[in-house]
Amino acid sequence: MKTLFAALFVVLFAAVAQRPAAVTYVLNPATSRLTWTGYAEAGGYAPTGTLRLAPGGTLVAEGPGALRAARVLVDVRTLAHDNPTLQEHLRGADFFDVAHFPEATFELGRVAGGQAQGQLTLKGQTRPISVPVTVTALGADSLLLQGTARLDRTQFGINYNSSSFFQNLGSYAIRNEFQLAFRLKAGRR
């Protein structure tokens, strides 16, 4: 019996010893890219713009592609669109209210089956989300995270011109779902 326990201990210790050490990476706002797309409920109108990361986001990985933890900070005040009127409307209280909620945060819970599962805090409300993600090692000291999230804005209290909340909007109706494509680069701390 002692031999069995000793053998089990050796096998477990060897498995733990072979596990790669966790490495912390810092997200780089200057080289990362976030692109949003909204959609009209009817017709093909789909405005697109950009957002930038806020400084301070981090990733923790055990070996290439083995993402264990992440904290992604988005500076919602950087929400941009070519049309200045639309840009200001999206930054205003009807949509993202950046004066009161300047930052959005994603906290990773786990990655399973190519899906990053975690908590998104947007406009002061936190909800669980699952986002497809690909993690790629860019050399020994950097990582690239890519994917496209589809988010329901009404889950975060953004109800403006949603046919789920208002009737008879006609061509003014805006789809609840918007898209956020991301290409995030991080360097070893």
TrEMBL record:
Keywords: Signal. Residues 1-21 form the signal peptide. Residues 24-187 form the Lipid/polyisoprenoid-binding YceI-like domain. InterPro entries: Lipid/polyisoprenoid-bd_YceI (IPR007372), TTHA0802/YceI-like_sf (IPR036761). SUPFAM superfamilies: YceI-like. It comes from the Bacteria. This is Polyisoprenoid-binding protein YceI. It comes from Hymenobacter caeli.
